[in-house]
């Protein structure tokens, strides 16, 4: 599937609570298509009373539906069926995802939907693999830990990959036996509703997977503060993450997983094999999803002797990108999520240029053939660690370039004072690459590649202000469990 007619897509709105659509006469938020700015639907804003209803419903389902108590293998079977239904629904889910987000429909069909299904399957397989352990005690005692779900997980997701980001939260939470109340971004609220419908169809008991709609200030805040929420898992900006952490501390010292922003460096040494491949990797890591990726490799740090050659190749790749709507065949540069976000990108680039940066390409809006906000892939050189575009997460297709002569200089440039989400090292010298892997302060370091594979085993998460805890991998499954310690005296 590589194109569709946006007028042909019908969306279901409202909240999804207890397996039913729920709406009320609450305040509403208009939802626009990023590709052309057309408002195509609205969602209600859940207030504290609606959050009570959703969380109480989830808690009751957690207690009474049998989800947490059933044989884990049975839970796994239901979740595998859920994954199968998601995969089989790609022809519905992909255009729904593309319509309201920045994901071109071809990518949503070939990657986002199957990846979401596979992630659910991956965590289904964990359901009966980790029950706790027997502890080495003396002969007269039996000590053990028992893994137990938290109850209701409050999950809050961003807009940049609506289905995938939500699945990273809900799949391990459900597999571990929890109920979930998910709040998607108010900009991309619809595709996860279809996910919740499919969960019920697969046999996940009603009330175990709920979706509430609304903004952050009203709905998100009420969700994380609710006393029955056992744990919060959040993906979004560093600023919101800090507010959520404070709210969790104030309302019950709730544990929290935070996947936050980044400003990830890409270190390229002159000996990096096949400079053309490196250029493709660097370009893809900043222009993919128009740079609206937490792991975007936004800071190129390159050995001086190859800097001009490499940036020329990247400019060439950027020039080949095709801006366009998410429903048009061949789009490789999708829109920016909203006009305010595009204006922010534009302003950061302008101020960085005004402070002395050289604009090698881009720096202007692109024509996507529709009234959405499109922004040309941009390269800024002659920048320093203090330049705004080097310091701030731009969340757009903007690459800064800094040069170095020694490995020590490269490492010093790679460290960001605040962020530590990911990094890339491109070099033929494995010793040097491994020294840098050790030295770079980041939650993920890729060597001679950049970006995830479809391998769910590898956890992801940030150092420093890029986050706390991990999504994906075994770690994300364990993070949805709490461990009860038991010690039995065998002599009585
Ligand atoms: P955002 O922080 O503005 O919003 C994220 C979610 O939080 C939305 O659902 C929003 O409604 C909600 N929210 C806002 N204020 C809230 C509050 N006070 N209490 C509770 N919820 C609140 O982020 P965004 O603009 O949607 O997403 C972009 C950001 O997400 C970028 O910084 C990006 O780096 C980050 N991100 C990180 C990862 C990762 O894995 N580390 C992945 C994707 C995106």
From TrEMBL:
GO molecular function, one term: aldehyde dehydrogenase [NAD(P)+] activity
Stored PANTHER family: ALDEHYDE DEHYDROGENASE-RELATED
Stored SUPFAM superfamilies: ALDH-like
Designated name of the protein: Aldehyde dehydrogenase
Pfam families registered for this protein in UniProt: Aldedh
Keyword terms of this UniProt record: Oxidoreductase
Statement: the UniProt record of this protein carries the keyword Oxidoreductase: yes
Family: Belongs to the aldehyde dehydrogenase family.
Segments forming domain Aldehyde dehydrogenase: 21-486
Catalytic residues of the enzyme: 259
InterPro entries: Ald_DH/histidinol_DH, Ald_DH_C, Ald_DH_CS_CYS, Ald_DH_CS_GLU, Ald_DH_N, Aldehyde_DH_dom
Gene3D superfamilies listed in its UniProt record: Aldehyde Dehydrogenase, Chain A, domain 1 (3.40.605.10), Aldehyde Dehydrogenase, Chain A, domain 2 (3.40.309.10)
């Amino acid at each position: 599937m590589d194109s569709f007619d946006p007028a042909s897509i019908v969306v279901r709105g409202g909240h999804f609570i207890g397996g039913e659509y729920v709406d009320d006469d609450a305040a509403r938020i208009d939802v626009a298509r990023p590709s052309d700015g057309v408002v195509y639907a609205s969602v209600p804003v859940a207030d504290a009373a609606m959050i009570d209803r959703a969380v109480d419903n989830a808690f009751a389902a957690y207690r009474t539906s049998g989800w947490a108590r059933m044989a884990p293998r049975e839970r796994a079977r239901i979740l595998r069926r859920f994954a199968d239904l998601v995969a089989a629904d790609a022809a519905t889910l992909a255009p729904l995802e593309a319509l309201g987000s920045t994901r071109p429909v071809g990518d949503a069909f070939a990657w986002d939907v199957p990846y979401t299904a596979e992630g659910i399957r991956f965590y289904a397989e964990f359901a009966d693999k980790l029950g706790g352990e027997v502890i080495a005690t003396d002969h007269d005692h039996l000590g053990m830990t028992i893994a137990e779900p938290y109850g209701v997980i409050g999950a809050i997701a961003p807009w940049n990959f609506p289905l995938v980001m939500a699945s990273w939260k809900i799949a391990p939470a459900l597999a571990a036996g929890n109920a979930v109340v998910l709040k998607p971004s108010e900009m991309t609220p619809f595709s996860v509703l279809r996910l919740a419908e499919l969960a019920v169809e697969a046999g996940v008991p009603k009330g175990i997977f709920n979706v509430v709609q609304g903004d952050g200030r009203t709905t998100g805040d009420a969700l994380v503060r609710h006393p029955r929420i056992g744990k919060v898992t959040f993906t979004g900006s560093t600023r919101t993450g800090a507010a959520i952490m404070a709210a969790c501390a104030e309302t019950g010292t709730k544990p929290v997983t935070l996947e936050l922003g980044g400003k990830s460096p890409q270190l390229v040494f002159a000996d990096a094999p096949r400079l053309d491949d490196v250029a493709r990797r660097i370009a893809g890591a900043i222009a993919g999803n128009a740079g609206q990726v937490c792991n975007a490799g936004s800071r190129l740090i390159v050995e001086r002797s190859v800097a001009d050659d490499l940036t020329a190749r990247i400019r060439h790749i950027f020039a080949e990108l095709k801006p366009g709507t998410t429903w048009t065949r061949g789009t490789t540069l999708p829109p920016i999520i909203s006009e305010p976000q595009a204006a922010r990108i534009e302003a950061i680039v302008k101020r960085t240029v005004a402070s002395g940066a050289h604009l090698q390409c881009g720096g202007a809006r692109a024509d996507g053939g529709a009234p959405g906000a499109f922004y040309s892939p941009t390269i800024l050189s002659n920048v320093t660690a203090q330049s705004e575009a080097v310091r701030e997460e731009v969340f757009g297709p903007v690459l800064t370039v800094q040069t170095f002569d020694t490995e020590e200089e490269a490492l010093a440039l790679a460290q960001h004072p605040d962020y530590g989400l990911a990094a890339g090292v491109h070099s033929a010298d494995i010793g040097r690459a491994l020294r840098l892997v050790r030295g770079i302060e980041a939650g993920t370091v890729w060597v001679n590649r950049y970006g995830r594979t479809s391998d769910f085993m590898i956890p992801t998460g940030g150092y420093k202000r890029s986050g706390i805890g991990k999504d994906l991998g075994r770690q994300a499954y364990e993070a949805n469990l709490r461990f009860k310690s038991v010690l039995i005296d065998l002599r009585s």
